[in-house]
Specification:
CATH class of the largest domain: Alpha Beta
Strand content: 25-35%
Largest sheet: 7 strands, mixed
Number of helices: 12
Number of strands: 16
Radius of gyration: 19 Å
Number of domains: 2
Structural class: alpha/beta
CATH architecture of the largest domain: Alpha-Beta Complex
Length: 332
């Protein structure tokens, strides 16, 4: 099979399209013929080595975190899927590899793809859908009538999170460039903030939840708009010490992160709000529920453009340049 691999951490120059043996499914695996796989910011971080403190990979490493495709074979313990089933999945963090003609998917990470979208649309959903659900529902506890601010509303996560928050009955504010203002309004945003000309803290106040995808200064400023008892959930920047300790990293790294993340930790304590760092995890049961939401018409994929697998380096460069609105998908 053909696959996009790296043999060491580095920039896009390290990405190669190579011929590799087909993978063999283990007892709990699905062997999937990949039809489409989407690109996410975490792909660049993995390629660069930015996640190696948390994730230990061996080389050669096939890149890619989420996919849609057709089951070709199953392990002997698999009971929920059979050859011919169309599935979508966010691969487990310890065994990625979606940018390939075939991939192994643990049964627990897979779900039947939504029936109302094609393979490209389905491949665009797993990582951003799970990230949005786990941020807004699992950590944020978002309820009808609450107010949420979602940063970077025109990005892959943002476009999904806006739609999910509206489905959950929340009032949604989002930051976005002017060229995408109409798009996020169409997706359901009630308040649209042009981040180039407006400061979001001058527009919104007393939010129950802020979902931050940017980190750094945007994260710190987000504490100004959350009411006491609210929550700030971030997927941007560095993890905090609480997350790193739960993840099981070395005490030295925990100490370092405690120092590096002291500002948001202090702000959360001063403002009386909860601060959560999210590193999304694979979950087939949640994907099955999200497929129902998609098929009911509450959430739709937002696709910027597609690239063939042979042009995976161009696709990575396009997303890394920050030009994408919604998701970029590799077709296989």
């Amino acid at each position: 099979m053909k696959a996009a691999v790296i043999h060491r951490y580095g920039g896009n120059e390290e990405v190669r399209l190579e011929a590799l043996p087909d993978p063999t499914p283990g007892d709990d695996d699905l062997l999937v013929r990949v039809r489409a796989a989407s690109i996410n910011p975490v792909d660049h971080k993995i390629r660069d080595g930015g996640t190696k403190v948390l994730l230990k990979y061996r080389f050669p490493l096939i890149l890619g975190n989420d996919l849609a495709g057709v089951v070709e074979a199953v392990g002997r313990n698999v009971s929920r899927f059979a050859p011919g089933d169309e599935i979508y999945a966010r691969l487990d963090k310890d065994r990625i590899g979606a940018f390939a003609e075939k991939a192994l998917v643990r049964e627990s990470a897979a779900a039947r793809k939504p029936t109302t979208v094609d393979m490209v649309g389905a491949a665009s959903l797993p990582l951003v859908g799970l990230t949005s659900w786990q941020a807004l529902v699992d950590l944020g506890g978002l309820r009808p009538g609450q107010r949420v601010l979602i940063h970077a509303g025109s990005g892959g996560v943002g476009t999904f999170a806006i739609q999910l928050a509206k489905h959950l009955g929340a009032e949604v504010a989002t930051t976005v460039g002017q060229r995408n203002a109409a798009l996020v309004r169409e997706l359901g945003a009630d308040v649209v903030i042009d981040y180039r000309t407006q400061r979001f803290e001058d527009v919104v106040r007393d939010c129950d939840l802020v979902f931050d995808t940017q980190g750094e200064g945007t994260l710190l400023r987000s504490f100004d708009v959350v009411k006491r008892g609210g929550v700030v959930v971030t997927v941007g920047g560095k993890p905090d010490a609480k997350f790193a300790k739960a993840w099981g990293v070395s005490p030295l790294i925990v100490l370092l992160l405690r120092v590096l993340m002291r500002k948001p930790t202090r702000l959360a304590r001063q403002r009386g709000v909860r601060f959560e760092y999210l590193f999304m995890h694979a979950d087939g049961a949640q994907l099955a529920h999200l497929a129902e939401i998609v098929d009911a018409g509450h959430v739709k994929p937002v696709i910027d453009r597609t690239f063939p697998l042979a042009e995976v380096k161009d696709a990575l460069a396009y997303v890394e340049a920050g030009r994408a609105t919604g998701k970029v998908v590799i077709t296989v």
